[in-house]
Automatic annotation (TrEMBL):
InterPro entries: Endo/exonu/phosph_ase_sf, Endo/exonuclease/phosphatase. Keywords: Endonuclease, Exonuclease, Hydrolase, Nuclease. Pfam families: Exo_endo_phos (PF03372). Residues 4-242 form the Endonuclease/exonuclease/phosphatase domain. This is Endonuclease/exonuclease/phosphatase family protein. Gene3D superfamilies: Endonuclease/exonuclease/phosphatase. It comes from Nocardioides immobilis. The lineage of its organism: Bacteria, Bacillati, Actinomycetota, Actinomycetes, Propionibacteriales. GO terms for molecular function: endonuclease activity; exonuclease activity.
């Protein structure tokens, strides 16, 4: 089983979107968790589920693709009004059972007050100790379906956060979020095989070595993982400013 997550670059790479989709298919993933994606025009609709970002045109968003088909499974959590456009979930049959796959794209800035107005956030820890971020609410909503004993899942995407951020900016906010993810039974795939992070963002003028794209699995799946690595992409700068991350079991 091979799963990749990739931020496909969005509007800045719109002209390259068909080539980027060709590259996704060339990797032959069983499942692809994509962000900043344009919906494909030549792939059967039963193979993908797509959630467009709020108030953005042309439409792009998060997407789950499965070469063997999937069942769209929209997540209607407590905080769906605020972050529902940043998550696509789907049920995919793997072996004898269905697994949940989630593609997430957590925006950098705190959530605007109008998005969280009326939501009860009193029991939700904050990512940076101040205002709530999308990561806070996405984790809370997804944890309701991933935390129960026996749940099988893969969650991946562009989190716009990195373990190395704490060392770089003298903070502990990233550590707090990754600890919360661990407590929610999310096992980070990449650290199982690597002592440090691998760079996944290749934006001009930003040469820091940090990883903001991540993959998590349930504990049972994590134990069977064979690899998790950043893929090398020919002409990456023509397709996206992110490198994909792939795991196999």
């Amino acid at each position: 089983m091979r799963v990749i997550t990739w931020n496909m670059g969005g509007i800045a790479y719109a002209r390259s979107a068909p080539r980027a989709w060709q590259q996704v298919l060339a990797w032959d993933p069983d499942v692809a968790l994509l962000q900043e994606a344009f919906a494909p025009t030549d792939i059967p609709a039963e193979l993908w589920a797509f959630t467009p970002y709020r108030d953005i045109t042309p439409a792009r968003g998060t997407l789950v693709y499965s070469k063997n088909g999937l069942e769209a499974s929209p997540l209607q959590g407590r905080f769906h009004p605020a972050v529902g456009d940043l998550v696509t979930t789907a049920q995919i049959t793997v072996g004898p059972a269905a697994m949940l796959f989630a593609s997430i794209h957590a925006v950098v800035n705190p959530l605007s007050p109008d998005l969280i107005e009326g939501l009860d956030l009193t029991d939700v820890p904050t990512y940076e100790g101040g205002r709530h971020h999308a990561l806070d609410l996405i984790l809370e909503d997804l944890a309701t379906v991933t935390r129960p004993r026996g749940s099988r899942f893969v969650v991946g995407g562009d989190l716009n956060t990195s373990v190395r951020f704490d060392a770089m900016y003298n903070k502990d906010s990233a550590t707090r979020w990754f600890t919360r993810a661990r407590d929610a039974k999310w096992r980070a795939a990449h650290p199982k095989f690597h002592a440090g992070e691998e760079r996944t963002l290749f934006r001009k003028g930003r040469e820091e070595l940090y990883q903001i794209d991540h993959l998590f699995t349930d504990n049972q799946t994590w134990k069977t993982l064979k690899s998790c690595q950043v893929l090398q992409v020919p002409y990456l700068s023509e397709l996206s400013d992110h490198a994909p991350l792939a795991l196999e079991w």
